[in-house]
Amino acid sequence: MKHRSTPLIAALATLSITQPALAQTENLDTFVVSATREARDPFEVPASVDKINQNTLEKAASFQVNLSETLTRVPGLVINNRNNFAQDLQISIRGFGARATSGVRGVRLFSDGIPATMPDGSGQISHFSLSSTESIEVLRGPFSSLYGNSSGGVILLTTENPRVGTELEVNQIFGTDSTRRSGIKLNKGNEEVGIVIDASTFRTDGYRDHSKARRDNFNSKMVWNLSSDTRLSWVVNYVDIPLAQDPAGLTAAQLASNRRQAGTNTVGNNTNKTVEQSQTGIVLEHKFSPGTNITFSPYYGDRKIRQVLASTAVIDLKNEYSGADLRFGHQTSLLGKPLFLNAGLTVGELEQARLGFFGASTTPNRDEANTASQFDQYLQAEYFFTDKLSVLGGVRNSSIEIESNDQFLSNGDGSGSKKYDEVTSNVGFTYRLQPNINTYISYGEGFETPTLLETAYLSVAPPSPNFNSQLEAAKSEQLEIGVKAKFGGTLVNAALYTVDTDNEIVVLAANGGATSFQNAGSTSREGAELALQHAFNRQWQANAAVNYIRATYDTSVNSIQAGNSLPSIPKKTFFGELVYKPSSLYEAATELRYVDKLFANDANDAFAPSYSVVNLRASKDWPLNGGWNVRTYARVDNVFDKEYVGSVIVNQGAGQFFEPASERQFLLGVTVGLKWK
């Protein structure tokens, strides 16, 4: 693939000299590990990376159930709430993942080192336990490919570590549409061992008809300091969704007549989804010396899904997944200058038993044993030529194999398999113009394989399962340039980027709940991101995240016309926040979010209009004697009662593209905590 010259590239050099910038929306002392696999200040990293800390997760979130509550403040990340707990959030980073009709595609997800993205690139986030999360990192751009297949971006969630002493918290939150959440969290530890246990239950009647849901989460993390050089962490995670009604999407006519109604045939056929998932993993860290360490992180999990579609088709999935990552890190010197090395191996396997039924029948009309496996090797190095100039580079060899073994042969043998092998590399240079200004340029290659879901149908006319071996992996090249700067109480980050992709994977046709996919030739994305944080004084602070992206098809394929925009990628987004914090005990803020129109299909003849919403929030801590603390908080989302579409279902076959967002929503909550030795 040859990277094209564009007007955007011509402007890059000007930006690097004239625009001050910074890559995060949190405090100056925030550290990241995602781009370098070392604890580093993002100011030093030649990549766009943001870290949302625990304070923001506690005070800016609402129910601490969805990532969309806080991650909208990250530039380049679009996270749309479908108002449908039968489907995951619609997450895209610089356009990667925007095509997903359910689950998460194109974005790599991790929770405490355990992949929430399977080897085939499909991801789920319903098991993320946000109430015990210490931080969430979001990595964008060329270095995302260091995490392997389907890494258009990376989201890494980390559970808080146990603290010395004993802390107990209970919380209760109430909101509009009979939405409520109850939770309890225990933190207990000493210098040698500690544990965090977090359990919660969430229920809602839903904004729309036929959208009731219940979700129960459990998360625990136990940490042993086995010696001064060795630490072992053990994570156990469980989620149960016994009820999640699926209201589906609406046509334009349905949306105009009654935005709260459920989609066609959903109520009569009781469309719904149930999920049960459990997983566990360990992280063993050992230092051989101050500059040499090894990390080993094996994991195992299982996920059961049963989903009833509007066509009365029933999907029954049982997934078992396991894997491990082994990483070796070493700090040395070359020609008298620091050199940091990381090398590792990643293995993963998904075994999926898939059954299909029709209506109330207990006789399967589909029976498959599917597998997806990966075996990756990676090497990464960072070298400091001088105090001002450094280089970070990496290479990853990935081997992904997906296979479908059809065990229901009365309609033909739909078995098939395909292997995808790819070597990707990336490199970035950081140059310090001044002590408070860093500029960088980075380049990277990436690839995205089709998932088991995307290879399930060669054609949907009629919908008969037949492994689509014609799908190729999408391959991309990314180029980014930006500047990071610190000016007293002001932090700024500006970046420009281009992405060229060959064999983009897109929807070919949809019928009766089945979807087939195709490769769509080449696409291009050109974008700009700006993150700004400014402290006016000790009481007032402003945060902003601005994103612009132009994402288009470059070639015509079937019904896709060159020049059309890729669907579900807003050209412009904005998040702004004004925070008032007169003391460490009180915080109030006004938020503004703007999202440009979303095209709903490749033809660009259906779209959801742009919208802007204003939110208000406030929280107050009430310290009491004896180690007690009470935190009260309130939130109003969509203050001006705006009617808008929150997300679209890309290329939905019956034209039911639109998923309306909630109107004005209220929330009241209280957390009672007690600390003792």
TrEMBL record:
Residues 224-639 form the TonB-dependent receptor-like beta-barrel domain. SUPFAM superfamilies: Porins. The keyword S-adenosyl-L-methionine does not apply. A motif (TonB box) lies at residues 30-36. Residues 43-154 form the TonB-dependent receptor plug domain. It is found in: Cell outer membrane. The keyword Nucleotide-binding does not apply. It is a multi-pass membrane protein. Residues 1-23 form the signal peptide. Keywords: Cell outer membrane, Ion transport, Iron, Iron transport, Membrane, Receptor, Signal, TonB box, Transmembrane, Transmembrane beta strand, Transport. Belongs to the TonB-dependent receptor family. This is TonB-dependent receptor.
